[in-house]
Amino acid sequence: MHYGSVTALENVSFRANAGEILGLLGPNGAGKTTAMRILTTYLYPSSGTAKVDGFDILEAPIEVRRRIGYLPETVPLYTDMRVDEYLTFVGKARSLEGAKLAERLEKVREACRLKPVWKHLLGELSKGFGQRVGLAQALIHDPKVLILDEPTSGLDPIQIIEIRALVKSLAKEKTIIFSTHILQEVEALADRIVIINEGKLVAQGTRRELAEKVPDPGKSPQDLTLEEIFIGLLKPQKAVS
Ligand SMILES: Nc1ncnc2c1ncn2[C@@H]1O[C@H](COP(=O)(O)OP(=O)(O)O)[C@@H](O)[C@H]1O
Ligand SMILES: [Mg+2]
C-alpha cells in the first residue's frame, strides 16, 4: 500500500484462523491501521488483495463489509446523539429493523454493559464507555469477524481490563483481529501474533513459535519475555518469518 510516495505496507501477508484472536503488533507508523482499513474495504490497496470469510475485498466488498464489525482507531461517535439512538441508527444502517433490531440492541447493551449510560448523550460519556459503545456498534449486526484498531488505547487500567475481558468473551464465536503497539496487550489477548514494522512483516506465529525464531537468544526460547522476543526479532532488519 502506497500513500503517494510513502510505502505504508510492503509484501505483508498473514492469516487469521476462524475463531482465533490475532494480534497485529507494531510500533506507531508500522502500518497496522492501514492493514485494517484495507481489510475493511475502507481503502483499496495499491496492489495485492485480501479475503474475509472467503470473499475478496476487491471483488465482493459489500459481502466483506456485511461480515465485519470494525472499531476504528477513533470511533465516530456523534456527540449530540444518545447511546440508544446511535446504536439504533447504526443497526438500521446495517439493515436491521423491527424485532430483530430490538433483539440486537438488547444483546449489545448486555454484552457491552451499557445499561448505566443507555439514555446518555455520547458527548457525556467517559472514554471507557465511549469505547464500549464503539464495540457495541461493531457488534450490532452480529458479524463473524471483528477488526479492532487499538481497542484499549487511551483507557485507564480498570477500563483496559474490562475491554480485554469483553473482547475475550466475544472470541468464542468470532474471529478477531486487533492491533496494538503495547506488548502486554498481545500477551493478554492474542492466540497468535503478527509483528509488523515499517510496513514489513517481521514475523508471525504463537508466542512460542516467535520465541523460537529469535536469532541468538542467549537463553532457552521458553524463558524469553515477550519484550525480548520483540526486540530480538526487530533487530535484524530483515524478515525472519
Ligand atoms: N492518509 C495517509 N496519507 C499519507 N500517509 C499515511 C496516511 N495514513 C498513514 N500514512 C503513513 O503510513 C504509515 C503507516 O501508518 P498507519 O497504518 O497509520 O500505522 P499504525 O497504525 O501502525 O500506526 C505511516 O508512515 C503513516 O505516516
Ligand atoms: Mg494506527
Descriptive overview:
The structure is a single chain. The protein is of the alpha/beta class and 241 residues long. It has a domain at 2-76 and 145-234: P-loop containing nucleotide triphosphate hydrolases (Rossmann fold). It is 37% helix and 17% strand. The protein has 9 helices and 10 strands. The strands form 3 sheets. The protein has a 6-stranded mixed sheet, sandwiched between helices. A two-stranded antiparallel ribbon has the order 1-2. A hairpin with a 2-residue loop joins strand 1 and strand 2 (6-7). It starts with a strand and ends in a 7-residue tail after the last helix. Magnesium ion (MG) is lined by residues 32-33, 73, 149.
| Ligand identities | adenosine-5'-diphosphate, magnesium ion
Order of helices and strands: EEEHEEHEHHHEHEHEEHH
What is the CATH architecture term of one domain? 3-Layer(aba) Sandwich
- CATH-level-4 superfamily name of one domain: P-loop containing nucleotide triphosphate hydrolases
What is the fold-level CATH name, i.e. the topology of one domain?
Answer: Rossmann fold
State the assembly state of the protein chains: single chain
Q: What is the CATH C-level name of one domain?
A: Alpha Beta
Q: Going across the major beta sheet, what is the strand order?
A: 6-7-8-3-9-10
Q: In a nutshell, what does this entry contain?
A:
This protein has 9 helices and 10 strands.
Topology of this protein?
Layout: E1 2-3, E2 6-7, E3 21-25, H1 32-39, E4 51-52, E5 55-56, H2 61-67, E6 68-71, H3 83-93, H4 98-111, H5 127-139, E7 145-149, H6 157-170, E8 175-180, H7 183-189, E9 192-197, E10 200-205, H8 207-213, H9 226-234
Parallel strand pairs: 3-8, 3-9, 6-7, 7-8
Antiparallel strand pairs: 1-2, 4-5, 9-10
The structure holds adenosine-5'-diphosphate and magnesium ion.
The site of adenosine-5'-diphosphate has 11 residues, from helix 1.
